[in-house]
UniProtKB/TrEMBL annotation:
It comes from the Eukaryota. GO terms for molecular function: ATP binding; protein serine/threonine kinase activity. Its EC number is 2.7.11.1. It comes from Mystacornis crossleyi. The keyword Transferase applies. This is Serine/threonine kinase-like domain-containing protein STKLD1. It is an enzyme of class 2 (transferase).
C-alpha cells in the first residue's frame, strides 16, 4: 500500500523494495511476496532511470522466483510484467553485470508457458540475440539466453519465422564458442533443436549445423540431456534434408553412426536417449543411399540391442 500510494517518488519505491527484500529469508512470508511481483515491476517501469532500483528489483524478483521454483509454484507473469522486463533489458543493454542477472531472471520467468507466450508477444527475441552477439564471452548470459530462446521457439504457433531464422547463426556461434562448457553447450543444443523443429535452419546451414551438433556430442559424451537433445536436433535436420544425413555419415572427424553407437553404450539403460537415437535413425533411413551406408555399418545390431533392452517401450 505504501508503494502504491507514491508511484512517482523513487525513494519510496526503493525503500519499499528493500523492505520487501528483508522478508525473503522468512519462509512464512513467501505467499505474500508472490503477490508483490507486479508492484516490484511497476516500480522498475515507473523509474526507468534508476539503475540501483532496477538492480534491487531484479535481485528480489530472482529470489521470489527461485523460491517459487523450489516449491513447484509456476508464476505466470502477465504481458505487462513481460513488457517491463523487455524495457529494462533495453535500458541496460550495455551493462554486462546487470544483464547477467536479468537474463537469469528471464530464464526463470520463461519456464512458465504463459509467461513465455507473453515474452514472445512483446518481441524479446531480437534483444536476446543482440545481447548474445555483444556478450558471447559471458558464460552466464549465453546459458540463460539459450534457455529462454528454447522456451520461446518451442511453441508451435510462433508467428515471426524470420526472427527465429536469424537466431540460428547466433546460437551456432554460442555453441562453437562454448563447446567444452557442457552446461552452455546443452542449453545451445536445446535451442537449436527447437529452431530446427520450426524449420528455421537455412539450406546452406544444414551441413555445418549437423557437424557442430556432432562436435557437441563428442566433446560432452557424459551429459545425457545434451546427447539426447543433440540427437533430436539432428533428427529434425535430417527430416528437412538428405544433406544433413550425409553430413552425419561423412563427418570429417569420424562417422556419426559410430558416435551414436558409442553414446548408446555409454548411457546404456537411458530410455529417453534410446528413443532419441531411434528417432534419428528412423529419419535417416528415409533416404536410400543413407540406409545402404547404415547397413554397411551394421546399425541393425544396435537396433536389436535397443529392442532387447526396452521390449515394452
Amino acid at each position: 500500500d505504501f508503494m502504491q500510494a507514491s508511484w512517482d517518488i523513487e525513494e519510496v519505491q526503493a525503500k519499499g523494495i528493500q523492505h520487501l527484500a528483508s522478508f525473503v529469508k522468512d519462509k512464512s512470508a513467501f505467499p505474500c511476496l508472490l503477490k508483490c511481483t507486479e508492484v516490484i515491476t511497476r516500480a522498475m517501469r515507473t523509474h526507468t532511470g534508476s539503475l540501483e532500483l532496477h538492480v534491487e528489483g531484479c535481485t528480489l524478483l530472482l529470489e521470489i522466483l527461485s523460491q517459487a521454483l523450489e516449491q513447484g509454484v509456476m508464476m505466470a507473469l502477465d504481458e505487462c510484467v513481460a513488457s517491463c522486463l523487455l524495457h529494462t533489458v533495453r535500458k541496460h543493454s550495455e551493462n554486462e553485470e546487470f544483464l547477467s542477472s536479468l537474463c537469469t531472471l528471464l530464464m526463470m520467468v520463461s519456464a512458465s508457458e504463459v509467461a513465455a507466450e507473453n515474452l514472445r508477444k512483446v518481441g524479446i527475441i531480437p534483444d536476446l540475440l543482440s545481447i548474445l552477439r555483444r556478450f558471447l564471452h559471458n558464460d552466464k548470459i549465453c546459458f540463460s539466453c539459450c534457455a529462454v530462446l528454447w522456451s520461446l521457439a518451442v511453441s508451435e504457433n510462433y508467428g515471426d519465422q524470420a526472427v527465429l531464422e536469424s537466431a540460428v547463426p547466433v546460437i551456432s556461434a554460442v555453441l562453437q564458442k562454448h563447446l567444452q562448457n557442457g552446461v552452455i553447450a546443452e542449453s545451445a543444443c536445446s535451442a537449436l533443436w527447437a529452431l530446427s523443429l520450426q524449420g528455421c535452419v537455412a539450406d546452406s546451414d544444414y551441413e555445418p549445423t549437423a557437424a557442430l551438433l556432432l562436435d557437441a556430442l563428442r566433446m560432452n559424451p557424459e551429459r545425457v540431456v545434451l546427447v539426447k537433445n543433440g540427437c533430436l536436433a539432428l533428427a529434425s535436420l535430417v527430416r528437412l534434408s538428405e544433406t544433413a544425413a550425409l553430413a552425419i555419415l561423412l563427418d570429417s572427424k569420424g562417422s556419426g553412426m559410430e558416435l551414436i553407437k558409442d553414446e548408446y553404450h555409454l548411457h546404456f539403460g537411458e530410455p529417453g536417449l534410446a528413443e532419441a537415437l531411434c528417432l534419428l535413425m528412423n529419419e535417416m533411413v528415409q533416404y536410400d543411399e543413407v540406409m545402404l551406408d547404415m547397413r554397411s555399418q551394421k546399425m541393425e545390431k544396435l537396433l536389436s540391442e535397443i529392442k532387447l533392452q526396452f521390449p515394452f517401450s
